[in-house]
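Handout, tutorial session.
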Amino acid sequence: MKFYKAFSWVLLLTMFVQIISVLRTALLAKNFGISNAMDAFNLANTITVCIVNVVGVAVTTVLIPYLTKMKDTDEDRRILHTFNTAILGSTFVLMSVYFIGVGIYMNFQQTTSELSFQKLTLYLTFLLGIGQYVRLISNIQTAYLQVENKFIKVKIIGFLTSVFSFIYILATPNISIEAAAICFSLAYILESLYLVFANWGNKYRFAFPSEWRNIRFKELMKLTLPIISTSVLYQVTILLPLVLVRFFGEGYISSMAYANQIVAIMQTLILLNLVTMLYPTLSRAFQKNKETAKKRLVFFINGCNTIMIPLVFGTVMLGQLLVKILFERGNFTAETTQTVYLFLVFISASLPFVVIREFIFRAFYSLGDTKTPVKNSFIVIFIQIGFLIIASLFMGIYAVMLSPLVAAVSSVILGFNKLNKKIGRIDFNYQLLKRHLITIFNSLIMCVAIYIAKNNIKINPLLDFIIYLVLGIVVYASLTYLFQRKYLLTK
């Protein structure tokens, strides 16, 4: 019950952060709609996130397990900061190579409208890249607090910085796209300063990074290199659809970004919070007893998808209305709403599989196996690339919409089979299948209730949405209490 109480507070704070983020995006949507400027902004933001995440993924997959075993000694602190320096230095090099390479390429191109778009994207990448690099520092500081179970403090800091960027954009009605990018980076800088202050004076205090030849540091790097390979492939799968979608015309990048903004609410509220809070527990379980760890793994997946699956079904029923309420004003038209809704449905359909994939990968990381996820990702990226190339010929933009689902399903199938072979059968009693079927059944009943309400209650979009949402929550929560309470509350 202590976990559920802590998670409830984290969920509430995260909800506030996401509400502020959506309102901020709604202001940008009103000003820029799905214009070239907004396409460039979203592409630049994705590029910077992907570059930082190539190496930054090691924070959650390698750094956190090290922190759970770290002792409060000078040597351990020096190893920690040597590893952090390696992460930050490698990311800086990657960003520098990107800017130099793209700058040289554009220098040799003739002036075209597409080149103007590329130059704007490069400029915005620089402005947003500063903030994303600083955010990597924040992620390291956040890892310290997470291991100490100070999740609420992290969320408070995130909320304050989100409010800052929202107020800045709100106070500037005719804000330029460049000023918006600067605002985002300033928010990340403030967040990093708050986090550094929050960790001031604890056992993670800075120690000069001088352990480059230490065998334990080298072991951390050996774990990191395969993860970087995996991350490179994963970032390619994120960027590839954006590059392809640009060929279908102006505005599709922005449409996908608006859909991703809504999906990010579900991912951040449920997936990231739960995985972040449960990963240290799962890692410790695998270090002590594999049989207990397997049971925890199954329970964690079932618990997360008990929340995630109804969210996906709810998105299908209420997504279009939600997009209309959030964004349909100014330069954001009804036609754009329909396009964003289609992206939203297809992207959200992959989330339950992403939950399973994330826990499977973390099971491998907890076992000290970073190579299997790499092999998995190599296969998945080729599947996704093949699907995009072939399916786009006869499905067009719908191939891009479907690609996240194809990748997530492929990754789950491969990862689950490999983990079964490595540690033995994970789920003897078919709890994964049984619990997921119950959750799907409950979600379908919820959809029926919402459908009936939509046909009989029509007041105004916002009030209608609230009524449908509350009804769906009540129906689903009641069914879950009836059919799953013993399983969820006795573990």
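The second record follows below. Compare its token runs with those of the first.
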Amino acid sequence: MSRKDLGMKNEIIKEHNVIRPKNDDQKWKGCFVFLEEYDEQLLKKGALVMRKNHKKNISFLKVENQTIWVRNTPHTGKEDCYVNQYTEVIEHEGKKYSFNKYLGTYSNLYWVQMKINLALKRLVLGKQHLGYVPEWLSEAYIMDDQVNCLESSKLFVLKEHI
């Protein structure tokens, strides 16, 4: 489900809006990216330590208003999620029954779609609210067709940071 509002939290969506790709499903192939900035301390003692000594490819998406995937967590922190439940409908003896089911214990690790300009606004608001940029706030996922549309600059190594 595509996010259109940063203020909506703990929303309940219809089950058909929950996407559960199968392993190795090429339709969902893409790569992880970071939006504008990230906490450089993560390269020393955090989730990005595995990327130490890697080269970075700086690129720009051609279309600003593209939809990307971001973590299911609002700028205010991991206590809430944009979406935490979905409505499942079952039919029994000719009658339809609907009930809400939680996405799971770690629903903040799920992904939601969001326009890039809204994701960048979320990043700014999160930095103001939290005082820093955690990885889950700046991390995004783009699809393969978007990767192919990247306008690339040069490949380089940030020796002072990596």
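Points raised in discussion: Helices lie at 42-45, 116-130, 135-138, 144-147.
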